[in-house]
Please model this.
Amino acid sequence: MPGDAQKTFYLETFGCQMNVHDSEKVIGTLLHEGYRRVEAVEQADLILYNTCSIRDKAEQKVFHRLADFKKLQAQGKKFGVLGCVAQQEGEKIFERAPHVSLVCGSASYRNLPQMLAQIEASGAAATQNLDAPKPEARNLIRITGLDDRETDKCFEIEFTARSNPHRGYITIIEGCDKFCAYCVVPFTRGKERSRTSDSVLAEARQMADLGYTEIQLLGQNVNSYRDPAGKPTSRKSFAQLLAAVGEIPGIKRVRFTTSHPRDFGRDIVEAIDAVPTLCDHVHLPVQSGSDRVLHAMQRLYTREQYLERISWIKSAKRDISITTDVIVGFPGETEADFAETLSLLDQVDYDGVFSFKYSPRPNTPALRFEDPIPDAEKARRLEVLMAKQKDSQMSSYKKYIGSTLEVMVEGRNEARSQWVGRTSQNKTLNFSAPEEASPKMGTYVPVRVIGSFPNSLLGELVV
Ligand code: SAH
Ligand code: SF4
Ligand code: F3S
Model:
């Protein structure tokens, strides 16, 4: 049967939304090349991991997976490592996991079809034999796609396999040129490069035609977007692009992440005020509330400049929810620096904080900084910060009780007989609905809030 002869692949994704969306494009590429996706490693001819190396724990995941499934190599299965660990570790991955055949960073995905063809050609010739005594008898197939900050092209393809039929991602800018002292991304994702606004808008219109109603614009620093094409006068700023996507007929919600404070202009807030489809939410990572630490991190802004941006967001006509990322225990962070981060949380009153313990990363300047803070102290600071934020969200989420919010229906929790919705502010609102009024996935419905938790709201469908 021809179906049985079809090549199969398994793909697991770690890391951020950019990786999730890259995987959708990689899956689309593989399907186009005649592969079929399977849900179990054991059923696949080709096993791929799209990896993250933002913190050490994330990086280790792929090596655990590779060790767990190493024995499958004897059955002729091929393994590939994609994404940020691939770009960071390069050929060292072959030494650590000799059963890997493909190592490819995100800036080289455009070349995947050729790489797959090479793997297939070599696979047809011989299977690898890791135990053979002589290297030449092992038939090791080693294909690499490593870029090293050369490419100025984006990964734009026509066959993105989006996993959700209602909301989808569009990457508008790839890479990063900011080089924060702690961060691997400039080394793993290549240099900063934007797509043309024409191509972004064409993709957004195509999605609207297919029935998508929510679009999330992505970039490591989405608001550092610079339209590369056309006459300077016709180029769109990030805020103009955001507004243009929001004005596409059929689009009901537009989100964007992640914004870098340095490139956050007041025009973004003005666009949110002017275009109702732009969601009431800004994720603006601060990392630390201490100027001393911000300087050491090379974040390129001060606490005061950051708070100025927050004041623009707070002075908007709409109630814009603000979330952030914080790193605790950066080398040299004193108790006083940490106290400044806590006081910044008080001042901003965030709706959500993603907090992380500093993790030393390869290639980064911070690796060379003296780091006298014991791990237990970093863990303590993280706990203090999280407990404080939980208390603060406990009271801020309460204020929605009694109000009616529009949610997009995103899921169903059978165990609790609840629907899962998301508000414009990106809050999760779990709600009940009478059986005869069961809402459809992807629709927008009004929900009255009747309860609150630190990270979600509880409600009832308004019928
Ligand atoms: N481009 C975004 C952040 C992308 S990385 C920005 O500049 O704001 C996502 C988050 O991971 C960061 O905001 C930071 O809080 C965290 N992070 C990055 N490197 C880290 C490290 N070495 N240790 C701990 N957390 C880190
Ligand atoms: Fe990393 Fe800084 Fe770039 Fe964000 S801006 S991805 S934290 S280097
Ligand atoms: Fe991780 Fe790479 Fe994203 S390091 S957070 S997958 S950019």
Remarks:
- The chain has three domains: 8-145, 167-398, 401-461.
- Residues 176, 178-180, 183, 185-186, 220-221, 260 surround iron/sulfur cluster (ligand 2) (CB under 6 Å).
- The chain has 14 helices and 18 strands.
- The longest strand covers residues 404-413.
